[in-house]
What does this fold into?
Amino acid sequence: MANSLSALRESNRRMVTEAVRNAGTLTQAQLARTTGLSPATVSTIVRELRDLGVLAITSGGGRRNAVTLAPETGLLVGIDFGHSHLRVAIGEVTRQVLAERAIPFDVDASAAEGLLAAELLVDELLEAVGAERDDILGVGLGVPGPIDPLTGILGSSTILPGWVGINPALAMEERLGLAVHVDNDANLGALAEATWGAARGRRDVAYLKVASGVGASIIIDGRVYRGASGAAGELGHITIDENGRLCRCGNRGCLETLAGGLYLTELVRATHGPGVTVSRLVELAVSGDVGCRRVIGDAGRHLGVAVASLCNILNPGLVVVGGALAEAGALLIDPILEVVRRLAIPSAAAVLAVVPGVLGERAGVLGALASVQVSNIESAL
Ligand SMILES: [Zn+2]
It folds into this structure.
């Protein structure tokens, strides 16, 4: 009984904190309406969370008892490593982005080169906004591979071969002298879309990142589900065709070999020349190229098979599709939906919406910014 009471209290605290984080600022009456908790319970929880340093209550002015996240000052840094870019942003806890810059990043570069480039970019942006490292509350770092939640080490990945076995958070902490929270790009994309974008306010969401590779993130009851070893959401490596192409993970016929940009661009190079990138493939498809439309449509149908299974297991209300391939919009989304409607159990398919993400290539870095607040809150609760 004691356990279930404390679990209920923790869950209520989490719900209140997330409501404030999503809205930026709320009155206690609005909090009661948003969470469905009684005004008395909200009042108790807000007081407790204020004492824990998670929330702040401001009185006076136009809004009585406005509740915000605490502290209200300080800067957040987001760093996002992708297959071919490095993007850094500096934001405020109020979620305003003050400065942001992306540079091309050589995927074959060593971890040390990547981390150095990120450090230089952070300092450059700090100078641009007239701030110093001391002003930073925390750093969120996104990497395109699974992170073991116990060791913090990047798992096997041929997307960043120079990074395998590295603890990116620790290595970045040593460079910046600041607390660094690390997560994979799909989890951060999901967090960004849930905070700013297409999944705002939704508590049960799956996010697919379809770019060079295929990744997914699963949000259950408002929190990213990580699994026993941080590998939850590795949707790109479920088997679609047991006798299919060899995948970079060592398996054959993974979803990624049928829908990942690295593999799709290979398909069109024979007909469209050697220089076709994922973005160019999408561009060509959108402008009406029949072959590129076919390739993206087929990728969508394969993704649909995986999403239908996901639907039967987790019954999400919303699937947000991000990553460079999602820029193809309906050309990718419609075939996913068509297959889901055919394969998933009707009661799960009926409630599912599949939409493209709205944050584009900024999703990773915005998620990294949001992750700093989430990890600070998690450690306080
Ligand atoms: Zn694989």
Remarks:
- The chain has a mean pLDDT of 89.
- Residues 119 and 132 are 13 Å apart (CA to CA).
- The pocket of zinc ion is lined by residues 237, 247, 249, 251, 254, 256 (CB under 6 Å).
- DSSP finds 13 helices and 13 strands in the chain.
